Amino acid sequence: MSDLQARKLLIVEGKTDKQRLQLVLQEPVDFICTNGTLSYNELESLIGLLQDRDDVYILVDADVSGMRLRSQLRQELPNAKHLYTRRMYREVATTPVDVLAWVLSQAHFLVKEHLLLPHKSIGQGVQRSTDKRRVED
Ligand code: MG
């Protein structure tokens, strides 16, 4: 098995989402950016590429186009695992990095340990943390 196949694969909408998630991840992950909802041909080629993998994850925005993309992928890639940002943040790219760290760690991704620390003491209070405070810490 090649190194590439051993990695998890994350489907996101855009390059800024990928960059944001890379700030959080502590393991190499392959990304596919859909750049919005998929055409029939794009969907077909994605299925061909991914249908036999069981390590495919989907993390898209909590908005109309994100939900549309999610339902396309749910039908065609039923084994893919769905991850969610919180509706209050709407976009992956505007979700605080420590919230993303929590979401990814719940799905057993390795994430940067220091981003998880606040949640151990404040439990569900993840919305208290902001990127700004992270930088200042
Ligand atoms: Mg969006």
The unreliable regions are 125-137
Small-molecule binders: magnesium ion
Mean pLDDT: 85
- Strand and helix order: HEHEHEHEHHH
Structural class: alpha/beta
Your description of this structure?
The protein has 137 residues and is α/β, with parallel strands linked by helices. It has one domain: Dna Topoisomerase Vi A Subunit, Chain: A, domain 2. Helix content is 47%, strand content 12%. It has seven helices and four strands; from the N terminus they run αβαβαβαβααα. A four-stranded parallel beta sheet has the order 2-1-3-4. Strand 3, helix 4 and strand 4 form a beta-alpha-beta unit. Helix 2 crosses helix 5 and helix 5 crosses helix 6. The longest helix has 13 residues. The chain is globular. The termini are far apart. The C terminus is likely disordered. Bound molecules: magnesium ion. The site of magnesium ion has 6 residues, from helix 4.
Structure summarized in a few sentences:
By secondary structure, the protein is of the alpha/beta class.
What topology does this entry show?
Layout: H1 3-6, E1 9-12, H2 15-24, E2 30-33, H3 40-50, E3 56-60, H4 64-76, E4 81-84, H5 97-106, H6 113-122, H7 131-136
Parallel strand pairs: 1-2, 1-3, 3-4
Helix pairs in contact: 2-5, 5-6
Bound molecules: magnesium ion.
Brief descriptors of the model:
137 residues; Dna Topoisomerase Vi A Subunit, Chain: A, domain 2; alpha/beta; disordered C terminus; 47% helix; 4 strands; four-stranded parallel sheet; binds magnesium ion
